[in-house]
Amino acid sequence: MDRIFTDFPSSVIQEIKSSDYAWFVEGENRDYISDEIMHLTSSEVSALTRAATKAHDLFTMAAEHVITNKLYAEIGIPDNMIELIEYSWNNHHEHLLGRYDIAGGLGGAPAKVLEYNADTATMLVESLHFQDIINDLIGRTKYRGQFNTLESKLVSAFQRLKSNRQGSHPSLLVTSLGYVEDKLNASMIVMAAEKAGWETAYADLEEVHFSDEGVFLELEDGEFVQYDFMYKFVPWEFIAVEEPELMAELTSLVTGGLVQIINPAYSIVLQSKGLLKYVYELDKRSSIVLKTSFEPTDFHNQAYVKKVFFGRLGENMSIHGKDHSIVEQTSGDFGKFGSIYQEFTELYKDDEGYLYQAGVYYVNGSPCCISFRANEKLIMDDDSEFVAHVIS
User: Fold this and answer.
1) The pairing of beta strand 260-262 with beta strand 229-233
2) Cα–Cα distance between 196 and 330 in angstroms, integer?
3) Cα(182)–Cα(36) distance, integer angstroms
4) How confident is residue 167, by pLDDT bands cut at 50, 70 and 90?
């Protein structure tokens, strides 16, 4: 089918520029938001959300298999994380938010799950807030809105967590390494928790105090405030590898019942691209799972993609042709991690040669938001554009 796009309203950019989120549309990011909005059909929404739902079941079963059989080394999990992974898994700590990256699902093409951003899923401002602005301006009057209940699902998840605290007033500290994009994403989590009635605060990780008694922030008057929960935009593998002392402290605090971390430690198992091998083996005949292996020799006369276990931003990837030659590759900072090899699958391409990859957010047990990234290259890297959608 021919893909329909609508020109992006200039009023949206003006509204963003006058808000706290101008970083996304200024300077080197001025072209980050695509000037066109993708039209989806109801059947395409269904195809993408069904794929995410099926994937969620498979990833959960695969994680249970890895944890039960202690296959951590196979998927690159650091040894110093195992105790906290098993504690958070066995005690059913809340996994709040993740995003499935999906190829296809458009124009009748089958939806294929590429990976699961289970630990520190970002693009929250764009997917939740910017898409909502677009929906207010054009979607609610001309089209059938969007598939986007991300905000309400996050609020509901925090409300459920609050109710599980049996009448107490839970508090949440949101933290990151201090990069602008991470802090802006953190503001979406703070907003949702506040709407659910939580006491909230944000601080860069270096400002957080970890003691034997819990997790604290120091106020200007010297008083320390303790927090029951901590939501981190800091990857678990970074903490385990680069900050082993902090990893030990967090293990002690969480297992001692002094703080609960979102997303929990077992999310690194879901995050590791090494888990994709076990996901594939669980359901080799599934229409949404791509063949994945630890060995490139398993691909005979078949194109494939090499990915590192904990790569981000499209770094340290390479796409290989049927003869194993490199078609496209990226460098990066994650080459120290092990690799998996995944069957290559086509992304949707528009008439101008742009390729599109869907992101489906999963919160509170169900898919709740769709958004897209676009690029002229095969690998979705940090130069990719954000593309909003409407349902037509």
Assistant:
1) parallel
2) 41
3) 25
4) low
Residue-level pLDDT at 314 = 87
106 Cβ neighbours under 8 A, 6+ residues apart: 3, 40, 44, 348, 356, 358
Helix axes 82-90, 42-68, angle to 10 degrees: 120
pLDDT of 222: 86
Distance CA 45, CA 33 (A): 21
* Phi and psi at residue 360, to the nearest 5°: -115, 115
Task: Classify burial at 77, counting beta carbons within 10 Å of its beta carbon; exposed 0-12, middle 13-18, buried 19 or more.
Answer: buried
Length of the chain: 392
| Residue 170 near residue 194, CB atoms below 8 Å | no
Q: Which two tokens stand for residue 175?
A: 């933290």
Query: How far is 98 from 56, CA to CA, in rounded Å?
Result: 10
Q: Which two tokens stand for residue 391?
A: 């349902």
Question: Around 348, how many Cα atoms within 13 Å sit in the side-chain half-sphere?
Answer: 24
Question: Of 318, 305, 154, 309, which is closest to residue 235 (Cα–Cα)?
Answer: 309
pTM of the model: 0.95
Dump strand ranges (E) for 65-154.
97-103, 112-117
Alpha-carbon gap, residue 156 to 87, rounded angstroms: 25
Contact yes or no for 253/245 (Cβ under 8 A): no
Rounded alpha-carbon distances, angstroms, from residue 60 to 65, 105, 267, 273, 286: 9, 22, 10, 14, 15
Distance from the Cα of residue 22 to its chain's centroid: 22
